[in-house]
Write a structure and sequence with these properties.
Blueprint: H1 3-13, H2 15-33, H3 39-63, H4 70-89, H5 95-120, H6 127-147, H7 153-191, E1 196-198, E2 201-203, H8 206-212
Antiparallel strand pairs: 1-2
Helix pairs in contact: 1-7, 2-3, 2-7, 3-4, 3-5, 4-5, 5-6, 6-7
Length: about 220
């Protein structure tokens, strides 16, 4: 995928990580607000959110096909949908089984977020680090739940809220950064189509550099 094609693609889909981030924050707030409800209610919230986030991940992967990591994004999207459906269809599983499913989901979400963050370091300056931090945090929380699956509803709600909130903030940071960078690149390319993109930076074409250099005639 060429740099200009990649820029055009990100310009048209930057709203996906933004929406994922907003939905994640809403889900985190709901998990805290409903922390004193039954485990079934919490499980349904997690299941619905897992499905919605996974569907949007599949859309994102399809739009970015050819970019490093999109194959893993597709795999995660499918796994997330399966886990979400299981949680919705069987919210009455024992607390131990539910904890294991949620723990696995958080671990996989953390791995997916980390895998997505690494190639994004060539597109964004700092936002990729937010996604990397969110991915590591999700992975750590998932491990904690898997190792100690005996958490009650309130504790589980807060752990989920923290993890999903980190994920949401990271997605919003990615969206805002990508939107800003793609607008900047688009403006530069409109000024001179010969300009190109290298690791997120607009680089003047050789011809443009020669035209603007005061020493262009020096040998």
């Amino acid at each position: 995928m060429s740099s200009q094609t990649l820029t055009k693609t990100w310009k048209s889909i930057w709203w996906i990580p933004l929406t994922k981030g907003i939905l994640a924050i809403i889900a985190a707030v709901m998990a805290v607000v409903w922390s004193h409800q039954t485990m079934e209610a919490l499980v349904v919230i997690v299941g619905v959110y897992a499905i919605v986030d996974s569907v949007m991940t599949l859309i994102n992967a399809q739009a970015l096909r050819g970019m490093v990591g999109t194959g893993f994004m597709r795999a995660w999207g499918i796994i997330g949908i399966i886990i979400g459906l299981v949680l919705i269809v069987h919210p009455g599983f024992s607390l131990h089984v539910i904890a294991i499913l949620i723990g696995v989901w958080l671990v996989l979400l953390g791995v997916a977020a980390t895998g997505f963050a690494l190639p994004m370091r060539f597109v964004t300056e700092k936002a990729w680090a937010w996604m990397l931090g969110g991915g590591i945090g999700l992975f750590a929380l998932g491990i904690v739940i898997l190792v100690y699956p005996g958490f009650g509803v309130v504790a589980m709600s807060w752990l989920l809220a923290i993890g999903v909130l980190l994920y949401g903030v990271a997605n919003i940071a990615i969206a805002v950064s990508v939107h800003k960078i793609t607008n900047s690149i688009s403006s530069a390319v409109r000024r001179d189509p010969r300009n190109t993109l290298i690791e997120g930076e607009v680089v003047d074409s050789p011809a443009t550099s020669q035209e603007t250099s005061p020493h262009r005639e020096l040998k």
